[in-house]
Amino acid sequence: MARVKAVLRHIYIITSTLVTLKVCQDVYHECEPLRASVCEFMPYNYTILPNILNDNSQDDAIMAISQYSPLLKIDCSTSLLPFLCVLYLPVCTVMQVPLPPCRKLCDEVQAGCESIMNEFGYRWPERFNCTNFPTSGLCVGETHLRREMSSEGSTSAWSLSYPQFTTPKQMMSRPVDITLKPGSNEETTDTEVPVFILLSSLHKLLLYDVSTGDLITLYSGLDQGAAIDFHYSKKWIYWASHGDSRMYRGSLSLDVLTDVHLVVDAVSATIDSIAVDWITELLFWMETYPSQIRVATLDGKNPTTLLDENLDNPKSLVIDPIEGYLFWIDWVGTLYSPSASVERYSLNKSQHDVIFNITQEILPNMGRSIGLCTDHPNKRLYWVDAKSESVQTITYDGTSFRVIVKSTFRNGLHNHNFLSEPRSVAIFGKNAFWSDRATQSVVKARKDGSSKVKMLKTLTASAPLDLKVFHALIQPSGTSKYKIQLMSSCGVLWASYTTLIATAVVLSIQMVPVFLS
Description:
CATH class of the largest domain: Mainly Beta
Number of strands: 30
Low-confidence stretches: 12-28, 146-192, 491-507, 511-517
Distance between the termini: 113 Å
Mean pLDDT: 78
Shape: globular
């Protein structure tokens, strides 16, 4: 009996082992060659997926790593890229399970990068919660990855000291691709993150590199400028020439705009401004004559009227898809007594509100407000006003009004003349950028008004008009708070068909007396 029990026990152990191996085989794939160029400096050439974040393909992992390129550019932590590679593209070991990064490696990254993320209004990602990573045991940390001098002795690289890596490779003497270093004081920190500004001039679409001063022509042939917006992750640029009824889209590849084609034709109306929802992937635009807000897919399909009441002369449509709000400026009054209001539309509640009135009684010498933009992290709106020559801001609920920059006069002269005809403003980090048509300039100042106004670039050929900061941080990831049911093309056809039938019936009824007579 004892011998039978022993045999059964061995059978149970073998069966359990086989079942465990089968389960592990079902959960984890085989090792596969590491083909992500961003992690090619790492001291291994095979990875295993899914990773601990449940990314099932290298393409998904590479896309996830690319979201943190702004932090990689500023070199907030030398451990950031190794941490991302170990997390998203884990090394394949003899155990054939993904090894997580150790908590200490995560702590190093958080210590260097979290404060910079907070500066731009973003929280430390929950998936990077360092308490989720082990403090010892089977993990990859500073004892397994160490930085050493390369053969030339001038750069550093990551080397390997973990005994169970099965496919280590020799390190190449190339440094991590970090090109910009943090500034040494408050005034220079705005150059830590490379900033590009998308511009429309009278006849061109332009891309301006704030760091280098380079100005790249993307598209020529505009007529009196254009309203512009973009979808950053897809690298799609949208524009509509002022006074035109057509909206176009092009794909930005490096510094070249390709695949330019028509996406919206408003026929008899004029497209004043464009707002791209990068989360729900919808395209909004403001039409005038008649005034209405319309929405469609990013390809311009299934156009639907969202709002066509209580709109006088709306301008500068913008969106915060995470909060579910559209904002714009509506011009009212007369040429000699202009006024304006900042208005909000809740996409979730279908509710239209005037959140801030700009009148001569409340704000003397104001009324030519234009160029509305959002500051998503701080839930604020900014705009420029040509009549008062100022940059102004309020919160999303219309409170906490401030004038952050304003022209002043001394001995009858301006202290600066970069607000005599402002057309558009954009916020990025601590800075406000705006365009001024009179001086043909792109201008910068601190958004809290704490610094002097600085002229960045003068366009000699034609004046800058619409302006957007082109950067991943402008369009953060998140969850939208609204849903919109677009009118399908089938619905349009059915409406036309039923209208045709109704018309035929009416005509038939009208013709009956004729036949009877």
